[in-house]
Amino acid sequence: MSVSMRSRVAVVGYAHSTIERRAKRALGAVAVDTARAAIADAGLSLQVVDGFVGSAMLPSAGGHQLVDGVTIVSPTWLARSLGATPAYVAGFDGIGQLSGSVGMAVNALISGAADYVVVHRALHNPAGSYHGNPMRDIRGAAQWSAPQGLFGPLAMIALPYNEYLLRFGARRESMAAVVTEARKNGARLPWSYWRGRPLTTTEYLAEPQLVDPVCRLDCDIPVDGVAAFVLTTAERARDLPHPPVYVAGYASSAPPPRRLPMHWPLDDILDGGAHTAARLWRGTGLSIKDVDLPQVYDGFSPLVWFWLEVLGICPVGEAHRFVEAGGIDADRPGAVPALSGGGALGNGRMHGVPQMLECYLQLSRRAGERQRDASIALACQAAPHFGGVVAYSSEPL
Questions:
Q1: What is the pLDDT confidence band of residue 4, given thresholds at 50, 70 and 90?
Q2: Start and end of every Thiolase C-terminal domain (predicted)?
């Protein structure tokens, strides 16, 4: 985002469905109700909403069928089902689903393609094995990795996690501090799947490993859930009921080096993430010292260590010690509240929604009893080298 684009767009309303393991209603029906609630929260009517943006990816390696309105919800399906007549509808299909969707919405609003844009993310938990291997024959590059067990996200994250443990002398006890922190904060949220269910270190360490060294609690749980946000220009935001939260800038990671499928070397993650962060700082004029509320992505627990390091919150190789010493304890004065919104581990597999939502709630002063003193926030999505980050501010920069 160029300097001329900073703070010209704001988030002005939101809605979030209850997060359930498997909802009793179709995902599309939940998405329609959630979008309507977000529009009403922004003080708007459906008639003025003329833009819809989102990502409809179903993050499952199990060969599940894509059915719009059932297993996914595309922006086109949502706009049609709401009965809207938008001027701009776009689906993001790239790196970092939610951060990429926000970027598209910002561009549409600044260009004048739309006046009010709904950005949504709808996640579905299909029946059966979520990451089962449906392959019966293997072709292309995967023939060199899948027969040896390197397929699907668990093996993908296990490799750099193992590499980090060995290279920097980290321990699984340090990772327990990540997962219990996410669950502690998620347990406080009324919409969270883990509401009222914090986790102890003993419980975490007792979990058997799925793919060494990843255990079940290192993974965000697949769920059914929908969130929607309303964005508009800064000028229009002044007339709406809630304090606007400005998009200060965003950065998406560059395509990573060509590797075998699912091969994520640790150096690729850290080097690529450092470049992503550098683009954000250049585009916003900010540095990590300006950020009060970094919300790091945690779809898999090792990503928390990786994001802390590429953002410059702690040196490379030190995140495990930083976290184990209470460095991200949201209840500790002076700590970095990097998972204060519970993240994916504390809410459920909502693909960056917890990070964006915590930024919005805190900066708009709508977090209730959890309210923090924050004016600059970051919402990170996906992996540092294969995702994106959005900076938000409570005042124009």
A1: low
A2: 277-380
**Cα separation, 200 vs 388, whole angstroms:** 31
235 Cβ contact partners less than 8 Å away, ≥ 6 residues apart: none
In order of start, what are the domains of the chain with their CATH numbers? 3-127+222-393 (3.40.47.10)
Tell me the C-alpha distance between 277 and 286, whole Å. 10
Assess contact for 204 and 83: CB atoms under 8 A. Answer: no
How far, in Å, CA of 135 to CA of 308, rounded?
36
Q: In the structure, what pLDDT confidence band is assigned to residue 324 with cuts at 50, 70 and 90? A: very high
| DSSP calls for 108-166 | HHHHTS-SEEEEEEEE---SS-TT----SS--GGGGGTGGGT--HHHHHHHHHHHHHHH
* Residue 370 DSSP SS3: helix
3-state secondary structure of 46: helix
pLDDT tens digits, one per residue of 147-157: 777 778 888 99
Sign of CA dihedral 178, 179, 184, 185: positive
Whether this prediction's pTM lies above 0.70 is answered by yes
Q: Measured between alpha carbons, how far is 155 from 350 in angstroms, rounded to an integer?
A: 21
Model pLDDT for residues 112-143, shown as the tens digit of each residue? 999 999 999 999 999 887 777 777 788 888 88
Whole-number percent of the chain with pLDDT over 90: 84
Residue 173: phi, psi to the nearest 5? -60, -35
In this predicted structure, what is the pLDDT of residue 3? 52
Burial 185-204 (b: 16+ CB within 10 A, else e): bbbbbebbbbbeebbeeeeb
The answer to whether 13 touches 44, Cβ cutoff 8 Å, is: yes
Of 91, 80, 86, 95, the C-alpha closest to 120 is 91
Beta strands in the chain (DSSP E): 9-16, 51-54, 88-91, 116-123, 209-211, 214-215, 225-233, 245-252, 293-295, 376-383, 386-393
Longest CA pairwise span in the chain (Å): 58
